[in-house]
Amino acid sequence: MAGWMDGSFSAVNISYYSPFSLSNKATGFCLLKKYSRCLDLRWTTGNRIFVTSTKKCLGAQGKSVGSEVNIYDCDDKSALQKWECRNETLLALKDQQLYIEVKADESIALSRTVGPNNHLTITGTSSGACTRTHRELYTIEGNAFGKLCMFPFFYKDRWFGDCTTFDSSTKRNWCAVETKFEREQWGYCPTSSTEHWSKNLVTGAYYQLNTQSALTWAQAESSCKQQTAALLSVVDPSEQAFVSGKSKLWLGLVLDPEHGWQWSDGKPFRYLRWDTGNPLPNPGHNCAFLNSAGQHNWQSSSCGKKLGYICYKDGTPASPPQTEQGFCSNPWIPYNGHCFHLHRTTLSWPDAQRDCRKEGGDLVSIRNVEDQSFVISQLGYASTDELWIGLNDRKTEGLFDWSDHSTVSFTSWEYGKPAVATEGEDCVLIRGENGNWADRSCDEKHGYICMKQSSTESKGDEIDLDIGCKAGWKRHGSYCYFVGSETKTFDAAKDDCKSSGSYLADVANGVDNAFLVSLVGLRPEKHFWLGLSNQKNFDVFEWTNTDMVRFTHWNTEMPGYRQGCVAMTTGVLAGLWDLLPCDNKEKYICKHLAEGAVFTAPPPTQIPPQCADGWNRVGTRSICSKFFTGPRSHEKTWFEARDYCRAIGGDLLSIHSAADGGKGWIGLHIADTNVGFVWSDGSPLNYQHWQEGEPNNLNNVEHCAEFLIHNWDEDGSWNDANCDLYNDWLCQIRAGTVEKKYYNTTSDGWLEWRGNHYYINRMSKSVEEARTFCQRRHGDLASVNSKEENAFLWKQISRTYGAYYIGLSVDLDRSFWWMDGTPVSFQKWDDEQPNSNAFDENCVVMTYYMGFWRTTNCGRETQFICKRRSTSPVNSTLAPTVTPQGGCGITWAKFGSKVRSHTFLTTKLVDITATDLWIGLNAVKQDGFYWTDGKSRKYTNWGYSVSMHNMYITVICDVEGFRHLAVGCGYRYERRRNPSVMHGWSELDPNIQSPPDTIDPNIYVRVGNDSIKVVTQNLTWYDAKRRCESEKANLANLRNEWTQAHLDLVAMNLNAPLWIGLNKNQTGGYFRYVDGWHLNFATWAEYEPSRNKPCVYIGVDGKWRTAFCNQTMNSVCMLSADVAPTESTMFPGRCPEDTNVEYQQSYTWLPFKGHCYLFITDEIEWADAASSCVRHGKRHSGKQPHRVHTSLVVVLIITITSTLMVVAFFLYKKSPRPLPTFENPLYFNSEPSPPDVVDTNKMIENAENPEPILTL
């Protein structure tokens, strides 16, 4: 808001927000009147117009031509009460082409056409209603979380159009944040008083900690300014200590595209307290907040995040700078009481300081913008210079001081400086076209600038700096300048300059602007006219001397949607330009070519080269533009769009005339809230084409401009918008240049960036699998070694969803190492990371939303990023890795390429007396089960009745007696930790020789109550059976998982199948062990058993298969102390053979107590199941199984059951009872479901929930 920069409630502000009345000149009628008096109006919340005397709002009866316009009870949700300006003096229903018209009978209605009766001006002026505006007030304290006041609001049967002390026990002004006050949310109104602020007794400064508010950075800054304060700037350790311990509160630190990080109130950026990995290089992370959870408290963030904030006021107002006069001997140059001398002899910083002190001075200290402007404009400074100044942090790292011990009151860093993590860069130099500062190693050799006190008396040997200029005029370059001694209007000042053979000063570049600052910046007058105005054309600014506009330096909210003449400001904001009414009376600056100087004509305009394919010429400029549009997923924020345009060799489009003319971002934005809109390519803002009523900086968050290509109102007009919105965009490049690729891509799809290749894989894999993928392509999981590299990778994943593995590994001692072997030189952890509570989170992912890092279990399957050197071959893969070699220590047994303890293998569990054994599976984070060693979940063996609310896993093995019929070993969840029994694994030790994997055919191996021997001779099934019988043994039966697991390993190690004791030709046509044991456990392969093959073997994969018995293979003999059950003779008969084969699958009928059963595990409907049973039910041709006659018993049971059910139903209907929950209107389930996704931007808990109104 104009006039609010100093936070004062000046007369300009009062008129800007004060009530007004509107009238129509064509009819002479007021818009609203009562008793022949025009009613006062005021803009209020939500684009409404409030009638102050009636406490009502201006509204329309409908959205059609002829609808009456009158006053109604205020309703902030009604679209019929929202208005906007068109062409200055038209009032239209918002977003409608319906305009207020004052008719001849004094009635008011909506019309679609525009005529004399539609134009409304503030009574007694020529200005329209939009020259006034609504003052948005952010609440303080209360329970509204800092929300804007709602005006008017209805409280205790009264309407309030402004803040009130009604019902306030403390007599503090307050307001509601909702129209009806139904949720009773309120807060105090901002004032300039510090009565309720905290005071620093040492410095006298005042602090207001708004810990319960939730505002964006810009909103927080506005709230402080409304209280004649500023967001906190921390300039020394004592101030940091005073506010430390506070959690997530905005500071006044903001990122400027030219000067880097700086304090919004203009305080010097001399003290650094960044947290590890901060500030972040992410696009749009231009603001900083205080976070006590961080190591050093300051963290950068997107300015749109909602946080609390700290307002600050100086205890004693700063005294205005005093202009001092003095004299300096040649070659020293005087300015404001000091003498300056620029040396181009290169010395180290300490040597330069010694040289300056020999001359009676010190390295220069720059106290304000005027000193800075003088240094770069009047000492012969060149844009190629790099010159030492006196600023350094040699005494205290991160705290910069002047070498002459003067107070640090001003800084002008270049972007990215001072360096955060470089301890060796302790001394500061000035360089570049704008003379910005950079910290460097003090041992480097550069030129330097000395400064000393000036003399009060002349010695007669001073340098004449104004050769070629008349007395009283000051020379800069080839021109002379004069400051007018009287205040005049713009036109009168222009005429006065013309009468002296000069013109109102133009400004060609930043150095010229700096000279003018050194000339008038310290003077007490607030403004000085320059020769720029948009008097002729509202959209176009021109110099009075007709020179092309090459440079602009607008103040905040300037030039805006207004017409006027340009004046330079002085004081704290010296050098910025304001657009003022041309009839204001201000002092002025004249300019003319110095005597003897030669005017240098600009080079002749050359025919610009052609634009590349797909690019279009921008007017007559040597610039080509291109509109980038596509699906919404490809849209970008303003910062992302700017970075994209720069990456392809250009910038966002800047527009300098109407000929330069989907919706898309252009390069106009507010980079510094103390400065107005600027073009991102650095060109001047000499042309503007805002949409009617824009820019309005809605909610103080609209700091970027978009080009409205297809707007129904004005084609090609501009609108200010939130920079974090996603949009299309327009790029520009120089004519004749070729568009660079945003990122080069290799032929196999990897992105090229700074000597490395990167592959973003969106297939989810565990770390082990992801590394295998990367390594086979000559890379590894990505290491991240700088903020820039992290930002590059984050940009690639920011528009996707989920996390991505990078190659950082976290050891149990919380140390870190990159898997590709590079040293850890950069980290970027998320809040409360790395996680130190779960020791199985040893891998790291990058989040898509901010690029922060989080630990996770390595077995979690997620997306990942590969990285390889640019010298790596493309389109090729490495050979598969060789199986690791080595052996195992005592008490450990080798298994594959891993070492597992005896207690881990199922074959050894039979020897363990404990029934519960820990394995490495857990769900500590309750988001799924993962192995503690981070391996993939390729195999699980869950038991029945598993409770998903438990977190840890034990193995349940019924060792004694093998009582589990279906499963000998299962799993279940357990909350309790068993401290004594566990099993684990470790890597192979290459120093231990592994014994050969051989099997002694003469040895029986004990497994439970059985002993097993492998016969490695290839025999038929019958020969194998006879071989076992010759040793008083039988072909093996596999009655439990112990034996199955053992033979599984044997078959795998031998890489050969094994006959077992199943042959249905010897057991009545169905499978049963030949030693008499029933088949109560089986692991058939797919499509097994086969109907025509009677003998069974266990394959190398552990699955059972059938074969013809005359085939030859190895076999397994078993000696057992267990006795097979005796077959009962109570149920004689045999089950039939199933001849029906479905989907290549045959089945076996199994006998049980006089009946035959066939089990089909396919899921089908009941009718289909019944038909299938019929198809399988062919009767046996021989003697039928014995049947038990149960028909009479079944009929009797059904009759008794039916009778009891009828009686119970009758009694139930007669008895009184409550409604069941599904039909009871008083029953509801209010327990919320836990969210699947956590909003990391939610910084204030329950910020939207209502609370009871507090005592005022």
TrEMBL record:
The keyword Phosphoprotein does not apply. InterPro entries: C-type_lectin-like (IPR001304), C-type_lectin-like/link_sf (IPR016186), C-type_lectin/snaclec_domain (IPR050111), C-type_lectin_CS (IPR018378), CTDL_fold (IPR016187), FN_type2_dom (IPR000562), FN_type2_sf (IPR036943), Kringle-like (IPR013806). It is a single-pass membrane protein. It comes from the Eukaryota. Residues 202-312, 335-451, 476-591, 620-732, 753-867, 904-942, 1007-1118 form the C-type lectin domain. GO terms for cellular component: membrane. It holds the Pfam family Lectin_C. Residues 144-191 form the Fibronectin type-II domain. This is Mannose receptor, C type 1b. The keyword Glycoprotein applies. It comes from Amphiprion ocellaris (Clown anemonefish). Disulfide bonds join 149-175. It is found in: Membrane. The chain crosses the membrane at residues 1192-1212. CDD domains: CLECT, FN2. Keywords: Disulfide bond, Glycoprotein, Membrane, Repeat, Transmembrane, Transmembrane helix. SUPFAM superfamilies: C-type lectin-like, Kringle-like, Ricin B-like lectins.
